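User: I'm writing a tutorial on reading structure tokens. Could you give me a worked example: one chain, its sequence, then its tokens, then a sentence or two explaining what the tokens reveal?
Assistant: Sure. Here is the example chain.
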Amino acid sequence: PSADNTAGSGQAVQTFEIKSTDHIRGSVNAPITLVEFSDFQCPYCARFQIQTLPLILEQYVETGKVKFVYRDFPIQNSHPNAMPAAAASECAHEQDRYWEYHDTLFENQGVWNKVEITSAITIFKEFATELDLNQEQFNSCLDSGKYIEEINNDLNDGRDYGISGTPGFFIGNEKTGFVKLNGAQPFEAFKSIIDSQLNT
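And here are its predicted structure tokens:
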């Protein structure tokens, strides 16, 4: 199928559903949506989070032009701790601290990405303590695995949208369609797509 390919980064996806379970940073009424499918244990995802996302937040999200949406895409065969990390972030969300926990996971990825899964879960509980979450609620949430199905739904959606590695991005809106961008691209790659879409 032919689609607008002016950004040179994959054809525009014409439809993209934002779900009520998605985590959104910025104004819900922003004209452009940037969706990231990400894996908390992926080093390239951490690079995007630490190097590129702050610039996107400052120049586009905080100015009301873009809303940033985070979706889980834990690749378990190479990143066994990514699924419990995603579950831990959902447990933090129950206490309205999703983004603080999300940032903590990425900023401290080196602490938990090489340890056994049981040790990682212990570390995730320690992060909850550091963020002053209700520890009992957080621990029982994480131990129950109650969000695994929701995270798997994100994974399946990502596969349906053609995501095969992380991070994977879709940038656009219902009117202009979405452009796909793969990998931890530099800020300029995002800027050129967002700017061209803001000008359409």
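What the tokens reveal: Helices lie at 43-61, 82-93, 98-107, 109-112, 117-130, 135-144, 148-160, 187-198. The beta strands are 12-13, 23-25, 32-38, 66-72, 168-173, 177-182.
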